[in-house]
Amino acid sequence: MFAKNSSLIDFNLANPKIIEKLFSFAQSLQMKALPPRNNGEYAIVAIFEASTRTRLSFEAALARAGIAALVFDGGLKTSLEKGESIDDSILNMAAMNPQLMVIRCGENVDLEKYVQKFSFPFLNAGWGTKSHPSQALLDAFTLRQQWKTLAGKKLLIVGDVKHSRVASSHIDLAQALGYEVAQCGPSQYLSSHSQIKTFSEISAGLQWADAVMALRFQFERHDKEQEFSRDHYSAEYGLNQKRLKQLKADAWILHPGPINHGIEIESDVLLDPRCLVLKQVSNGVYVREAIVRMVLGENA
Ligand code: CP
After folding, report:
1. Whether the Cβ atoms of residue 262 and residue 290 lie closer than 8 Å to each other
2. What atom of ligand 1 comes closest to residue 132's alpha carbon?
3. What residues does 182 pair with on adjacent strands?
4. Local mean pLDDT, 10-residue blocks, the chain (300 residues)
5. Which of 45, 51, 282 to mutate to test the pocket of ligand 1 (most atoms within 8 A of CB)?
6. Which of 53, 137, 279 to mutate to test the pocket of ligand 1 (most atoms within 8 A of CB)?
């Protein structure tokens, strides 16, 4: 993982020592910019599903590293409009021989197939409901900056854990880095993963947690029959001032974004000094720059 020319699709080969090396690299990039590479290198950033934070922070990371980002915005005047398939689009982009490809796509795209087929690295920028490793890494990096170590810490994830690629990547990363993940949410949206503890009452979960992460309630992925009303969801699981009182005084608050204000989190919670939401976004640039530089062969 993160070796020269390696891809980042999930945490199957997660090695805590290498992840620590990545975090140190990101930390040093945050303190002091390294010179750009300036070797005429370019990366393709292929965006087949909506994104703001991940797309822009990978672009920022590439800019900081001196690698040109060629952005394929699948929502905007590409040959997808003329009926070209995603597969053909990726094959054609790959034929331009980028140094790496960053890709956000649905789970219908077989990323593993492309990793096998091409010699340059693929960096998963959010893959359907499957995984979002760079998001889990930047969340873990952000918490580690507060705690100094992640080992033994407790992260409560609240909401639609079943459809969350962020939660899925945290469950895998937590096993490598030694933090514990628990979930709380509507029963039909809970993960059945064996490594995750479940709280049926959010109050008990909040008292247990060293950090709480609210997830975006993904209305677009839900079966209408099973759907919670927004008001019901907010009443049962929304983070608000009353619920913050149940958290430990030094527990941190996270959200990967984008946020449904007033559903999974009230706007005033974002102003709480324990809220790290924008810190997560800032840190995303350095963690992604470290990923890019490491898979291109730079040493931390
Ligand atoms: N957290 C996250 O993946 O945000 P975007 O969908 O805006 O990239």
Report:
1. no
2. 3
3. 156, 197
4. 94 90 96 90 97 98 97 92 96 98 97 97 97 98 97 97 96 96 94 91 98 89 68 92 97 97 97 98 98 93
5. 51
6. 53
- Are residues 196 and 174 in contact, defined by beta-carbon separation less than 8 angstroms? no
Provide the β-strand partners of residue 252: 211
